[in-house]
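Course assignment 3, question 2. Fill in each field.
Student: A.L.
Task: Predict the tertiary structure for the chain below.
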Amino acid sequence: MKKLVVAFGCGGVLLVTLFALAIFNLDVLVEMATNRFASRITKTEVKIDDAKVSLRSGEVTLKGLFLGNPDGFQAPHAMKVASIFANLDEKTLLEDTIVLDRVEVVGAEITYEKAAGTDNFKTILNNVKASVQGEAAKQEAAQAGQSKKVVIRDFIIRDGTVRLFMPMLAGQNITVSLSEIHLRNLGKEGTSASEIVAQILASLQGKITSPQIGAELTKGLGKVGSQMEKSGKDVQRELEKAGDRLKGLLGQ
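Answer field:
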C-alpha cells in the first residue's frame, strides 16, 4: 500500500479521511479513492510512503505524510509528518458514524510561508472550507444518511516544528518547536471527514500564527539578519522589513 495519495492531513492533515477510507477500501481501492479526495478538497499534492491497517485490532499506521504547498507559494511543501497512529472503535465500522478513539500525529515538520497578505496554511484551510460548503450543498440535494460520518475522541499533534520560509533567507534555517496540540471530541456526534479536517487545520493554523510562535520566528529572523550583515546593508534592511511584515501578519 505504498505511495498512496491521501488528504491532509493537514492537516492535517486529511488524516481522518485516509483512516476511514483505508478501513473500507483496502489496498488498491484506498489509492483510487483518496487520490480523488485529496486533490479535490485541498488543491495541493498529498501523499504517504506507507500505510498499515489492521481490521482485527482497529489500528492504523501511516508513515511519511507529505502535504504540498498551494499555488502561489514557493516552499517545496507545507508539511511533512513522520508517523501517524490511530485507534478505531471497530464496532462502529458498519454504523453511520465511524468513531476514532485516538489519532496521534508525531514529528510534524511544518513550513510556514506568507505571500500576498496571507499564508500557506490559511490558503489550504480556505480551500477545505470551500469544499465543505460544496459538500453541504450536494448533501442537501441527495438523500439523507448516505454518507459516513466521523468522530475523533482525541486528536494529538506532538514533537512538531515550525520553519519560516522566505526566499531572501538564502537557505538560512529559522525553526521553532511546536507545543503539543490536543483536540477533543472532533465531530461531536458525527460530521463529514472534510469538516473535521477543516477543524484540525483551523486549530493548526491558529497555533502557527499565535503570538508565541510569531515572537520566536521574529527573534530568529533578527538573528539571521545579524549573521547576514556582512552581506550588505541592503540585505539586512530587507530582513528588517520582512520581520515587520511578519509581525503584522501574525497580529503582533
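Instructor remarks: The longest helix spans residues 120-141. Residues 1-13, 22-31 have pLDDT under 50 and may be disordered.
Grade: pending
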